[in-house]
Design brief:
Blueprint lengths: L3 E4 L2 E4 L3 H13 L4 E6 L1 H9 L1 H9 L2 E4 L2 H9 L10 H15 L2 E6 L4 H12 L4 E6 L9 H12 L5 E5 L4 H9 L7 E4 L3 H5 L8 H5 L3 H8 L1 H11 L3 H13 L1
Parallel strand pairs: 3-4, 3-8, 5-6, 5-7, 7-8
Antiparallel strand pairs: 1-2
């Protein structure tokens, strides 16, 4: 088992990408089930306001560190997380991992056409990859039972090893928590907006901005209306809360 460290009440996984993929291979071969949440700052703050989401993140098998501020916070608190693993890093790694090991994938969610574009890009990059299906449900804050049954039926008909869910957080994490036990799959991952970037439909920040912790600013320049609240209203709350955790912990 990998260690987890407390960041504002959420137990964040401390694990490297290579060890994470090794764990995935073991889980698939042993027919076990696992849920994976990817938690940037806004997800951590959302969990503080929602007991259901907090419980989901703390119950998940893997709750990954997405974001340089989360990594910095872990170091400041004296419990450094081994590696930042974003959805944008995990998805390309997963495509290669599945192609190499003959594990199958299913793409659920995102906007119409995005899953198909990702499938085409993945098959171009990895001709041997086994993508068993793509399903794009209509947008809804919460799916009606009929639609939810369609989503699960599409997955269970093909029995993929891994289901990637792109419904935005924490909606995708709630969906996985509520449905994983009924799905004929081994691993379900809430992958966020990585479909669009990996498919080449949206550009990712340059590497120097990623390393400098400025990827958020690059995303803001691309989608200012959607990202303003996240980065300029919600995110500034994070640092004082981490400082307060440090003070309380020292006492």
């Amino acid at each position: 088992m990998h260690p987890k460290h407390n960041i504002l009440g959420i137990q964040i996984s401390s694990i490297s990408m290579s060890n994470l993929l090794d764990d995935f291979a073991s889980l698939i071969r042993s027919s076990s089930k696992a849920s994976v949440c990817i938690t940037p700052v806004n997800s951590i703050l959302a969990a503080r306001k929602n007991a259901q989401v907090l419980a989901i993140y703390n119950k998940a098998n893997y709750t990954l560190c997405d974001g340089v501020p989360v990594l910095w916070a872990s170091r400041f608190l004296g419990t450094p997380i081994e590696q930042r693993i974003t959805g944008l890093d995990l998805l390309p790694a997963l495509l290669e991992f599945c192609a190499t090991n003959n594990f199958s994938l299913f793409f659920l969610g995102a906007s119409p056409g995005v899953g198909d574009a990702l499938k085409a890009k993945a098959e171009l990059l990895h001709p041997s990859i086994n993508i068993k299906g793509v399903y794009c449900p209509p947008f809804a804050a919460k799916f009606e039972k009929e639609e939810n049954d369609k989503m699960m039926a599409a997955i269970n008909a093909v029995k993929p090893d891994i289901v990637l869910v792109s419904l935005t957080a924490p909606k995708q994490d709630i969906w996985i928590s509520e449905n994983l036990e009924y799905l004929d799959t081994k691993i379900a991952i809430g992958i966020g907006g990585a479909f669009e970037v990996t498919a080449g439909l949206i550009n990712r920040a340059p590497l120097w901005m990623q390393k400098a912790g400025l990827e958020w600013f690059y995303r803001f320049t691309q989608e200012p209306k959607r990202m303003f609240k996240r980065y300029f209203i919600e995110a500034p709350v994070f640092i004082p809360l981490v400082i307060l955790q440090k003070i309380k912990g020292s006492r």
